[in-house]
Automatic annotation (TrEMBL):
<keyword id="KW-1015">Disulfide bond</keyword>
<keyword id="KW-0378">Hydrolase</keyword>
<feature type="signal peptide">
    <location>
        <begin position="1"/>
        <end position="22"/>
    </location>
</feature>
<feature type="compositionally biased region" description="Basic and acidic residues">
    <location>
        <begin position="145"/>
        <end position="154"/>
    </location>
</feature>
<dbReference type="InterPro" id="IPR000169">
    <property type="entry name" value="Pept_cys_AS"/>
</dbReference>
<feature type="region of interest" description="Disordered">
    <location>
        <begin position="133"/>
        <end position="154"/>
    </location>
</feature>
<dbReference type="InterPro" id="IPR038765">
    <property type="entry name" value="Papain-like_cys_pep_sf"/>
</dbReference>
<keyword id="KW-0645">Protease</keyword>
<dbReference type="GO" id="GO:0006508">
    <property type="term" value="P:proteolysis"/>
</dbReference>
<feature type="domain" description="Peptidase C1A papain C-terminal">
    <location>
        <begin position="216"/>
        <end position="430"/>
    </location>
</feature>
<dbReference type="InterPro" id="IPR025660">
    <property type="entry name" value="Pept_his_AS"/>
</dbReference>
<feature type="region of interest" description="Disordered">
    <location>
        <begin position="178"/>
        <end position="214"/>
    </location>
</feature>
<dbReference type="InterPro" id="IPR013201">
    <property type="entry name" value="Prot_inhib_I29"/>
</dbReference>
<dbReference type="Pfam" id="PF00112">
    <property type="entry name" value="Peptidase_C1"/>
</dbReference>
<dbReference type="InterPro" id="IPR000668">
    <property type="entry name" value="Peptidase_C1A_C"/>
</dbReference>
<keyword id="KW-0732">Signal</keyword>
<dbReference type="GO" id="GO:0008234">
    <property type="term" value="F:cysteine-type peptidase activity"/>
</dbReference>
């Protein structure tokens, strides 16, 4: 019966492929078709079917799916041998997606996977070409990046003291306000300092919105301040995309200035390894010392390392940058709400390769992977946080294009022992 349901799903999909021209004219995506046919049929299939997925390799409808996939993502291969190899990887990935979505439907997984432009790549190849973060052996920035002769532990202790002192001041202020309210109801003489909206934007006391502190701290979402999500391509330049996006978002948030910084300048000219990776701290230091970067319009991205070619114009100069203590997600939350987007890092997994959220109405799109490694290898930008159905999460911007994930973003569990290494770095710019 299970095998019969699989064939029914593939048959339905085959019928839709027969009229795929109509699909394209209606503006529907490949993933929408897959979700409405194969994956919909798969939700009714027993787990016993998983060991029978080999039938996909020789099934004519699976081969039609392959043809549609190539057309939709403009896939062209140089030789028949290469296409045969890619087809094998495509089938392997399709089986993984179907198997894992079984687990989602049974409540064993918090998010769904979806077939995307990386469907013809093995995980090892994907990780090699689509990440690019270099890390020091100590798990922190290289010695050359430590400023003023301080080591990492002292820098982290200083930042920790800053956040602790800030919390103490807020507690003292609340106690004083309550006392003043009892003595002189309606008057708050101590309320003279600046405050922040839930978005992190600083406002004067006279312009403060009438919202409670609980509401203002519940969630942050800076997506409105970010430029459209871009695609790093098959170049290990995630560090360049993460740092520039963090700086761009900070300028938009704090100063209302919009621009796009040149990722290519960082790939070509900074002390990084080009398309073979780079450091977050080193990249911030380069931008600080040079007083900014060239605009993306004058030095556009090329997905490969080229000869450094600088001009005179610069934008996005920062006065300084900082990094939150390793593994301290509360410090990351405070820094995010106070300063703006954070350049961070994550460990790449197969789940991340095909992450697609749930779109199922139950809000289950938070990456929560038990026993996920904390050995980070991919740079990202943390642009928000919140709580969904009782689960804390970070809102993260990626650099694999808008067709990946949730329009280029994803959510990952927060306050779960630095899930997949998300708490390793929290670099922010001071502008």
């Amino acid at each position: 019966m299970a095998l019969r349901l699989l064939f029914v799903g593939l048959l339905l999909f085959g019928c839709i492929i027969e009229i795929h021209d109509a699909m394209f004219t209606n503006g529907r995506s490949l993933q929408e078709v897959i979700d409405e046919t194969i994956n919909k049929a798969m939700t009714k299939v027993s787990k016993k079917l998983q060991d029978k997925l080999e039938v996909l390799k020789d099934n004519k409808y699976a081969l039609k799916l392959w043809k549609l996939y190539k057309r939709f993502y403009h896939k062209n291969y140089s030789t028949p041998e290469e296409e045969k190899e890619r087809l094998g990887k495509f089938i392997d990935n399709l089986k993984i997606i179907i198997q894992e979505n079984f687990r989602f439907d049974e409540g064993l997984k918090s998010f769904k996977l979806q077939l995307n432009q990386f469907g013809d790549m093995s995980f090892d190849e994907f990780r090699q070409k689509l990440t690019g973060l270099n890390i020091d052996g100590r798990g922190e920035t290289p010695p050359s990046e430590v400023r003023d002769g301080q080591d990492d532990e002292k820098t982290h202790e200083r930042i920790r003291r800053f956040f602790v002192d800030s919390v103490k001041k807020k507690i003292k202020k609340k106690i004083k306000d309550k006392f003043n309210e009892k003595v002189s109801p309606g008057r708050h003489s101590s309320d003279t300092s600046s405050s922040y909206y839930s978005s992190g934007t600083r406002v004067r006391p006279s312009a403060r919105r009438p919202v409670s502190s609980k509401v203002s701290k519940a969630a942050v979402d800076y997506r409105q301040y970010m430029n459209p999500v871009e695609n790093q391509g098959r170049c290990g330049s995630c560090y360049a995309f993460a740092v520039t996006a963090a700086v761009e978002g900070t300028f938009a948030l704090k100063k209302g200035e919009r621009f796009k910084l040149s990722k290519q300048q960082l790939v070509d000219c900074s002390p990084s390894n080009g398309c073979s990776g780079g450091y977050l701290g080193q990249t911030f230091e380069y931008i600080k010392k040079r007083g900014g970067l060239e605009p993306d319009t004058s030095y556009p991205y090329a997905s490969t390392r080229q000869t450094c070619s600088l001009k005179s114009r610069k934008v996005g100069g920062i006065s300084d940058y900082r990094n939150t203590p390793r593994g301290d997600e509360e410090a990351m939350k405070s820094a995010l709400a106070t300063y703006g987007p954070l350049a961070g890092a994550i460990h790449t997994t197969t789940d991340l390769q095909f992450y697609g959220g749930s779109r199922g109405g139950r809000g289950a799109d938070i990456l929560d992977i038990p026993l996920c490694s904390k050995q980070v290898d991919h740079a990202i930008v943390i642009v928000g946080y919140g709580t969904e159905n009782g689960k804390d999460y970070w809102l993260v911007r990626n650099s694999w294009g808008e067709n990946w994930g949730i329009n280029g973003y994803f959510k990952i569990a927060r306050n779960k022992n630095s899930m997949c290494g998300i708490g390793t770095y929290g670099y922010y710019a001071i502008v």
